[in-house]
Each structure stands twice: as structure tokens, then as C-alpha cells.
Amino acid sequence: MGQTHFSGPVLVGTKTAGEPYGPNQGSIILAQTVAIQATGQANISLPLYVPQGAIILTYFIDTLTAWTAATAALSVGIETIPPGPGNQLITGLDIKTAGRITLPTFTSAQLAAMRNVTVLGVPVAAASQNKAFNLNVVSGTPTAVGYSQFTLLYVQTG
Known about the structure:
mainly beta
């Protein structure tokens, strides 16, 4: 099946502010999935990019083939300038066992970073807005068996 590509945030709805039963417009939730495949290396690093300023809603981690290494610790960092507290969505989460991984509880600093604001709700500078993520798996010992998928859900803004 073909795909359509276009640029810009999508707003869906029929009513704007001031109209009866309005506004009823909302943004579309988008998703990107990165495959994390064991490569025989002890460390795996993968990038994931979203439109600058995207608001991160949540993520899912599905391990479809259990990892045979002693550990498979996933860390996902938000690349920001400058790096700061809360910029790690995930730190050392064990993804070794097959199945959907239970999401950890987010801290206020993580939630703020996911929304491009400070913990006081002040918007961050454009250079510090969400746009790039680093996925790193440290398995401790090289393994060639293990397959997980990281899916990020987000909303594209302005």
C-alpha cells in the first residue's frame, strides 16, 4: 500500500472557537517505530527523529524475541541543547524478556521535557525542543539473539 507524505501539523475538526459546539478541533497522534535487533555487539545505538517541537505523549516497548544476553538495558535520551535533568525518557530499562514492557512512572522533569516546557510551564527555546532521540541498548555481553521495537507516540505542533 502506498503512503502519502506532506509537511506540517494536521488539525482535524469542523468547528472553531465561537461557533456552536466549537471548538472541536484536535491534533492527530503520530507514531514512529524503531526496530532494535541484536547484532552480536554488546552495545547498540539507534537514532529516532521527530518534527521539532513535537509533544511526546508516551511510548511502547515490545520485545518479540527474548534477548539471550545476561541483560538488555535500554536507555532513551532526548537530545537537547543544553542537556539537562529529565532528558532521559528511559534509563537502563530491562527489555530482555519477551512481551510488552511495563512503562515506568514519568517524573515531572521528564513530563516537562516531553511537552517542551520547564516544570513551571514556561516554553523552552526552539533549540531545546524535542526533535531527536538516542536509543541505546547495553547487553553486557555480545548477543545475536534478541529483537525489540520501540514505538514513540507524539503530536506535531506549529
